[in-house]
Fold each of these.
Amino acid sequence: MRALRGKRRMIKLLNSKPGAAILLLLLMVIWAFSYIIIKLTVQSGAIPPMSLAFLRFVVAAAALYALPIRGAAPGREDRGVVALLGVFGMAVYFAFENYGLVYTTATNASILVSMIPAMTMLGAALFLGEKFTPANMAGLAVAFAASVLIIWNGSANFHLNPVGDLLILLSVISWTAYTLIGHGVMQKYTAALVARQALVTASLCLAPFFFHELFTGKLAGVTAPALLGVAYLGILCTALAYTIWGHCVRVTGPVHASNLLYLQSVITVICAWFTIREPVNAFLFACMGALIVGVYLSNAPAAPRPRMRVPRIK
């Protein structure tokens, strides 16, 4: 009985905004290592970019189909939308990101990806009719500036790489489209079931590129570390990540979920300090504080307007 009550409390927490924020923090820890794995894999030539995206989708889809997920799968009327999610949020997004990281630096990619919340807010205002306060927009600007300063940290230099930077920017637009298009579907179905169907579409989109690279010998240099990287990207960064993201978009809305992505910079700094003892100075602490304030303001609800009291006629 106690275990059942504990399970119910956990489910209630995860379906609340604080619980969704905790899940997003976990997601950002997982994603913090994905850029490193992708860059090392594609630059070493072990697995080409398109094959890497295809293999992670196949692994992710297999992982989700192996799990007994409750709930109804997306019906016929929503399959077209789910297919679009697979095209834009998976196949197109990772194709642009993987190729982009071949031509640009991780610093450039991190800064450009920081534009996702602003893109999502703009898209939500244009296509979903959402309203935002001046405090929300100011908070977004503060969070973006603090995130850029954390990434730079006085040592990294931003060098324009037109081809790679453009590809990363296109991946940002693709992810924004995925978040906005998927908002309605996520309200109706379990996120894991939506992700499972979308991954099948994404795999089919990239299958021709994979077989072309396979038959032309570009996969001849696959190594054991590269396969471990595929497993990490597929199971954690895709199957689990898309499930968490879809759930959080449903609970908090697309804009609030995207705004929390700024905290990834803070998590990256903390992870670097714990794992490789990268130094943390007062400048970084100040930037992290500003970023947290910015995220808070960007997610702050508008103050309710006071109701006018109409005097009673006696």
Amino acid sequence: DAHDLQLVDLGTKQADGKIVIDDNANQRFRAVMSELGLAMVNWTQGPPETTGYSGFNFAFEFPLTLINQNGQVGGQNYWTMQGSTPSSLMMPGIHVRKGLPFSFEAGSRVNYITQSNMVAATVEAKWSLNEGFIYFPDLSVRGFGTQLIGARDFNLTAAGVEASIGHQFAILGMFTLTPYAGGSFVWVAASSNVIDFKPGLSEPDQFKDGASGTSTMPA
């Protein structure tokens, strides 16, 4: 689909049409995987308090994450999509959270990257060190792991830890206002599958080693 990545375009295209793998190609892969890994996990959409021991939360979300649309390494863009590269990724999804004893909470989230075959699946666990006090802010820590599913040429996994702080204020005895903020550390691990950078050539022509193989040239 339009927003699926094409790793074949990370290679350097020469004047004769050949594609060369060099250090810049590897750096482009590193750059796009780092940004995509952060895009699929780097948002905090809830205050630090848990749902409570008997609480349950089911939410529809629509995160929108800005990306470096024209980012380049070695003078060549590293966002290489099937169609034109957008300035942001839209990732609608479903988020489920369940409260546990001792101010713990477990959750899961599934987000679809629009116009692609890719889905980000997340599991998370949160612990509120302090919550529900009138004069003290709520504090929590959260750990999460995200796996990208449906990518054709690569594997992408991200994991992180997050700390957040916030406080709930009552308004006229009828509403509450809860400002909050958080920060996280995210680790991204990515690897590519074997990429055929010249699929129109037969195996002997491609590798120049006289190997036998089925030709992919049209009859």
Amino acid sequence: MRASDSFLCVVWLVLVLTGLARVQGEQPGPRQQWKFTASALDGNQLRPAIGKLAGEIKGSFSLSEQSGLDCLRLGPADSPSGGGILLTTEQDAADLPVAAMSVEAWVAVDETAEWGGIVGAVLDSGTREAGWVLGYRKDRFYFGLATEGPGRITYLQSGSPMLLKAWYHLVATYDGAGEQRLYLDGRLDGRRAGQQGAILRPEPLFYCIGAYRDDNDYNPFTGRLAEVSVWHRALGPEEVAARFEERKNLFPG
């Protein structure tokens, strides 16, 4: 091999390794995302912003615009046809997090509930407990999660009460090593240890936005949603704070 050929091979190898290091150093973005704008809706069908999972809106809903912000208003919860957005009942299509996760929502709750759901794929029926859910109970947000370790759901509740009809940025994370975290407007608001291992898959599955739903519970949400995102990794505190700071001025109040 000529010296010039050897030099070109070395240069090529350096470029490849540099590119791999850069890719490996980057943190992957959301696996799924839904933005509640007019362009995302076709009748009662919701198109995803990221990923392939579309949704069907149940019950009453309307698009809303406030101070230049587009959002979807769901409710009231007593609609005769139920409420919320059913994403899927199929395990393969759901593409749910397994080892670790984060879920983010920009949300305003209009009516409190005993068990309100913002987004989740959960099963809490007697001794059968699996999945995860981000929601609210009375005046507190919560993050429910069940993993292989205990095999039961633990509900991490926010330390701060919520105000009805006020916008909030919520992020819940599970690091795969035992800790749940709940962030409120960019700041850590609660943490809990005890879960361990892979996230249990609910069977049957009801992957929903705007409802706490399993095989014996169906509690629709009443309020507004601007965006929901799901990662297959745990966001760090700096990432959560940066995401809140990036968009907080878009939300009235």
Amino acid sequence: MKQQKTRLFTLLAALIVCLAGILSTAAQAQSYDVIYGQQNPIPDIAERVRPAVVRVISSRETWSRQQGRRVEESGYGSGVYIDGEGYVVTNYHVVSDADVVEIETLAGDRLTVQQVFSDDSTDLALLRLEAPLDVTPVPLGDSDALRIGELAVVIGHPGMADRVFFGTVTAGIVSGLDRRDVNAGNFGRTVNTIQVDAAINPGNSGGALLNANGELVGIPTLKAGSEYGENYEGLGFCIPVNTVREVVAQLKEYGVVRRPRMGIRISELDGPDELIPGYPPAGLLVIEIEEGTPAAQSGLALYDVITHANGTRVKQFTDLSDLTDTMSAGDVLHLTVCRCYDPAAQTLLDDPQTLEFDIELKVLD
């Protein structure tokens, strides 16, 4: 009798464990319903979108001093097929300085890109293929409609050279919006990036960030790794698709992004906030002036230091580009400049001057 009771208790315990497992599975399924809606949409998104996310291979010939011969360098990333005309969008840093750019489809087809159009200041490039791909393009969503906490799906081809994990799908949430202070040298102007915690790794650059409807809402461009000895996980940043849409439209029509500008190249100059003897102030150092441009006609000179634009203190390139991005061709930009260098003598002036210039912006490209 005692043995029968023991067996009964053992059987009862096993049933309880089994029931707990069923309840746990049901709870997990229910949690997917809560997070994703009526069902988990990721498998359907992956099935539809993976064929339209291609691998991008860029090659250039260079000289190896170590080997004493010419060698070929390659770069790798991802790209998204966005329309039926044969266009793929990717990151500029994936294809910069390349002699040849190719794409490789999920099916294994390798095709040479016919033309590359780029906008280095937003880290975007548009690749034109000889013929459309036999896949469904990824529909474009609305990045302005994103909310923190909603589903974020990333598809790309992480890995390098021959070790590539084709069509990798990762998922997480939108962790932050309008991240303006994220720049690893890939942006020449302010881009309000989308922060996600979905895994992004080398090779994912230029791939797809998708919402729960499988629409393209961003292009992964960089991942925060470490800083000052601290390691970060789950900090990925993407270019919003609404920025991509504007840049792509101009690249298709003009081959470049046409922005009103003065016609100068500048470099950020560190220094004191105000001019002191022997030290120019912090600002934007003019290092090139294009002939025949509004800047050249205004009297602006090489090595002038721009300290204010329309009355606003400027020290970084984005301080100036944020301002000019709100202006149109024909608008006048008022600059305050410190002229403290003598190019002929290649020395600082004993009596530096503060000068004012009004420069009309024009579309020069």
